[in-house]
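Dock NAP; give full complex structure.
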Amino acid sequence: MNQVLVTGATSGIGRAIAVTLHKAGFPVAATGRNQTALAELASEAPGIETLCLDLSDRPAVEAALQGRRVDILINNAGVMPRPGAFDAMAIEAIDQTVEVNLSAVLSLTHLLIPQMRARKSGHVIFTGSSAAHAPGANFAVYAATKAAIAAFATALRAEVSADGIRVTELVPGRVETALYQGVISDDARAAMYAGGGSLQPSDIADVVLAVLRLPPHADVTRLDIMPTRPVPPISLK
Ligand SMILES: NC(=O)c1ccc[n+]([C@@H]2O[C@H](COP(=O)([O-])OP(=O)(O)OC[C@H]3O[C@@H](n4cnc5c(N)ncnc54)[C@H](OP(=O)(O)O)[C@@H]3O)[C@@H](O)[C@H]2O)c1
């Protein structure tokens, strides 16, 4: 069975993907920085492999993945900077968002594509965002990183599809996760998920499993997953 590496598997979408694929019988290596969350994941999904990795620490990532086979790379980890006017953002927040959402994704993919090419098969999945394709005020840097991921996925596919490597950009709308924790107030966060209309992490995981179950000749290139009903606006309080 194909070996899976899921980043950002300590929480939200990545955790749901890791658990769902593990239950479906895929050998899964799940990464994140939060050791407690990794231990909880390992006890909920016995047999899953956990790797404590800060994706912005490239030497550590390279060392941890040295010699490891990865058939399915799920580039999911991401951060949301505090929403607000671009010119009011701290430079550190801009840098961290670009680092985690874009640079670390490029370097991890760069590390693992050669072995997929050598085997003439593989699958790279990116958790993009609807913000990439419908960018708006107060999310300029987050949207820019996700738009870059969309462009990268398209260009990468053009380079690797002849080697049997599939590339999928997931484009979720609002999913109820910890993404906004600490960057908007708890009340604003509760309000944005009020009404229960948001997607759940398991919805995205179910889609990923369906994509992976397609035969190797079928490449789902971009997949938009939106809440059916309109969701409440995000308050910047
Ligand atoms: N929630 C939404 O509405 C939504 C919509 C569209 C797209 N997305 C995208 O979905 C992806 C997953 O987000 P989520 O909503 O599931 O949020 P989440 O619950 O906050 O999960 C984010 C994950 O990223 C990991 N992460 C963050 N910085 C990292 C770093 N430096 N090194 C390694 N791992 C790091 C976190 O793990 P540790 O803290 O343990 O490191 C965590 O597992 C992100 O790319 C996000 O942009 C989310």
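Observed: The pocket of NAP is lined by residues 7-14, 32-34, 37, 53-56, 76-79, 100, 127, 129, 172, 174-175, 177-179 (CB under 6 Å).
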